[in-house]
Design a protein that fits this description.
Blueprint: H1 2-21, E1 24-32, E2 38-45, E3 51-55, E4 60-67, E5 73-75, H2 84-88, E6 95-97, E7 103-104, E8 108-111, E9 114-117, E10 126-127, E11 140-145, E12 151-158, E13 169-177, E14 182-191, E15 195-196, E16 200-202, E17 219-222, E18 226-228, E19 241-242, E20 254-255, H3 266-271, E21 275-279, E22 289-295, E23 301-307, E24 311-315, E25 339-343, E26 358-359, E27 365-375
Antiparallel strand pairs: 1-2, 2-3, 3-4, 4-5, 6-16, 7-10, 8-9, 11-12, 12-13, 13-14, 14-27, 15-26, 17-20, 17-22, 18-19, 18-21, 21-24, 22-23, 23-27, 24-25
């Protein structure tokens, strides 16, 4: 009888412990867009100090709380305090960007002998899908799941001809977290006609905490031997340049701001800092591998980014200009965040030597990103 009682108690304790640490996923309203479309906020928690908040507007990572070296959670992604900012001053905070992330030169590309024109919204070029890209539409929240790996799956159907792109494209975005404090974002897309696709996430990170100031002392490693120089409009010239001996060498971790004000480096002058694609590989890898690592000496937080994509766009927050007020009430200034965007190379549709952005009917595009968080216990 005692054995049965003990067994029952053990099972109850195990069940209670599992329930206490199981992740949760909840939905709530987050207001509406200017045209009256409701926006949903999904919150994922893992019971280990991580909380992710995802908006149906732009399938965006609105907030991500992770613990610092003292175990205190803090939000480490920039964002607007409400929906108005997305439309008043678009900056892609946490957004899913596409159909084609990054730039297409002069808003033109050719596919199967036919030239297509997409909206120009970044000087003479098209950026992140055009004026009404994936970041400015409300996605459908298809599935919200609690459990060991709480998650949300969102879908957007972009009709044939949307922003000038051919084919009806059905795209899904799945966010999930686990008990190891890893955030996974997976994008998939299918089409009913040949088209081009390049979808990624545009989170602005500050490992010391959103609104805490500059990230220039945070240390960055990029696992790439080369990068793509650009012209003055941020379009790659076609050269694949070795990083050795340059300000673009992040193979060994260094502070983001160490070389950023080097006026002798024309590429940094063009971009007002870093806004370039690093060549991690010449084609997509079979499995995700670590492509970047960032550590913050102040908070102890460490971010390791894993991806199978061939390119990684690193942007050092050069155009944050103190005209945007963030979630915590402070203004965002130049260098207050960085972005790391796994993707195809910019302007690939016009550069066959860069590979292919083509998606055929019956095939599935996939971009899987894993953000692994840990802490460095050492004080700065």
């Amino acid at each position: 009888m005692k054995f049965v009682t003990s067994l029952a108690t053990a099972i109850l304790l195990a069940t209670t412990t599992a329930a206490a640490t199981a992740g949760e996923a909840t939905k709530a309203s987050f207001g509406s867009t200017p045209d009256g479309t409701d926006v949903t906020l999904v919150t994922l928690t893992n019971g280990h100090g991580m909380t992710a908040k995802i908006l149906s507007l732009g399938a965006a990572l609105y907030a991500l709380e992770v613990p610092d070296r003292n175990g205190k959670p803090g939000d480490i992604v920039l964002g607007y305090p409400d929906i108005k900012g997305t439309f008043a001053k678009p900056q892609y905070f946490g957004d899913t960007v596409g159909r084609y992330a990054n730039r297409i030169a002069k808003g033109r590309f050719t596919l199967d002998g036919k030239q297509y024109t997409v909206p120009v919204n970044d000087g003479p070029n098209s950026l992140h899908g055009g004026k009404l890209g994936f970041d400015k539409v409300v996605w459908t929240v298809d599935k919200v799941e609690s459990g060991a790996r709480p998650s949300v799956t969102l879908t957007y159907v972009s009709p044939d001809g949307d922003q000038g792109y051919p084919g009806k494209l059905t795209t899904t975005a799945t966010y999930s977290i686990d008990d190891k404090n890893e955030l996974t974002i997976e994008y998939t897309a299918t089409t009913d006609a040949p088209t081009i696709v390049n979808v990624t996430n545009h989170a602005y990170w500050n490992l010391a905490g959103e609104g805490s100031g500059s990230v220039m002392d945070q240390k960055l490693m990029i696992a790439a031997d080369a990068y793509l120089p650009t012209d003055a409009t941020a379009i790659p010239t076609g050269e694949i340049r070795n990083v050795a001996g340059s300000d673009f060498d992040f193979r060994k971790a260094k502070p983001i701001g160490r070389d950023i004000r080097d006026a002798k480096e024309q590429q940094l002058v063009f971009g007002r800092g870093y806004d370039h694609n690093w060549v991690v590989s010449r084609k997509e890898a079979a499995q995700p591998r670590e492509v970047a690592r960032v550590s913050d000496p102040k908070s102890g937080r460490v971010l390791s980014l894993w991806s199978a994509q061939p390119g990684l766009q690193f942007y050092s927050g050069n155009f944050l200009d103190a005209t945007t007020s963030g979630k915590s009430g402070g203004v965002y200034r130049q260098g207050d965040a960085f972005a790391l965007e796994p993707q195809l190379y910019p302007d690939t549709p016009n550069r066959p030597e860069f590979g292919s952005a083509r998606l055929e009917p019956g095939k599935t595009y996939r971009n899987l990103m894993i953000y692994k968080f840990s802490v460095d216990k050492a004080t700065k």
